[in-house]
Write a structure and sequence with these properties.
7 strands; alpha+beta; Jelly Rolls; 7-stranded antiparallel β-sheet; Arc Repressor Mutant, subunit A; about 20% strand; about 40% helix
Length: about 300
């Protein structure tokens, strides 16, 4: 592990576009027969941590599902073979019985949530049906809704604990439904849908890996085509290239983090899949016509 050098951090943006049994180049996917929205979270523990400069524990193993929902700041984590940096808009899911290692990068404000899962009738779900749940980082695109839910969860601090948990569970469920709905949506940077199943799959894989340092060669290989064939079909079907599409997704997230957080440019670059702030600044200027610094100054209220 290389906690002192963030250039070693492997960016794994965990997809919520279906069940995941692994990340990265050797990741395998398996479609679940039970829909994602049929998993209903039941909150058992809640804590709001404000501007924590370090975690009390570097590593923990829980008996329930654990979620760190970041409101501000950032931290690095490792869950099994997954590792990434989480910041505002990210929720990090860790299943029970699995080691969750974490280190604060910049003073972090987050919600610590423990939960189990039930079906729509309130029956506890068979653990085998939980294989399709996300493990690691989930990045929500609609941060306005997320901010509203976070604010509402904090407003219940002065209620009786029983009623507070009921209301917080309501907001947690709303956040979870946003995650489920996001699997059916395309980001605003998404080009029109293609009728070609291969291009549909390619755009899905790029969305899933956009915030990692992914390999287009490996994506093409997983689809059974060459890199050149994929780029040609992508351009023909959608009028853009896979790299330009991934860049649009990354810059969309960078803009949100510039406006809605106090993260440094290097920290934002880590969250968006770039090597460093210098490289992000160059890409940002070339595509947006302004620097990240100016964009932050002009768009903050």
């Amino acid at each position: 592990m290389h906690f002192c050098n963030l250039n070693y951090i492997l960016k794994i943006a965990v997809s919520v576009n279906g069940p995941i049994t692994g990340d990265g180049a050797d990741g395998e996917r398996k479609r679940m027969s039970f829909p994602l929205c049929g998993h209903i979270p039941r909150l058992t523990y809640y804590r709001h941590v404000v501007r924590r400069e370090q975690f009390f524990q570097y590593e923990s193993i829980q008996t329930e599902w654990l979620v760190f929902a970041v409101e501000d700041g950032s931290f690095y984590y490792e869950i099994e073979h997954r590792s990434a940096t989480a910041s505002f808009g990210d929720l990090v899911f860790c299943p029970p019985g699995v080691a969750f290692r974490r280190v604060v990068i910049s003073p972090v404000t987050l919600f610590v949530l423990r939960m189990n899962w039930a079906d729509d009738l309130g029956n506890e779900l068979d653990p085998q049906r939980l294989d399709g749940l996300p493990v690691g980082k989930v990045s929500l695109r609609d941060t306005d809704k997320l901010t509203d839910d976070y604010a509402a969860m904090k407003r219940h601090n002065f209620l009786d604990e029983r009623w507070s948990m009921i209301r917080r569970n309501h907001h947690l469920h709303h956040i979870w439904l946003q995650i489920c709905e996001q699997t059916e949506q395309l980001p605003s940077a998404e080009p029109p849908r293609s009728s070609d199943p291969l291009i549909e799959k390619a755009t899905q894989l790029i969305r899933e890996q956009a915030f990692e340092r992914f390999s287009l060669q490996m994506i093409a290989g997983s689809l059974g085509v060459s890199r050149m064939q994929l780029c040609h079909k992508f351009q023909t079907e959608l009028g853009t290239t896979p790299i330009k599409y991934a860049t649009a997704l990354r810059l969309e997230k960078a803009k949100k983090l510039l406006v809605e957080t106090n993260l440094t440019l290097d920290q934002i670059s880590e969250c968006c899949g770039y090597q460093n702030g210098f490289y992000l600044s160059r890409v940002f200027k070339n595509n947006c016509g302004t620097t990240p610094k100016m964009y932050r100054l002009e768009h903050r209220l």
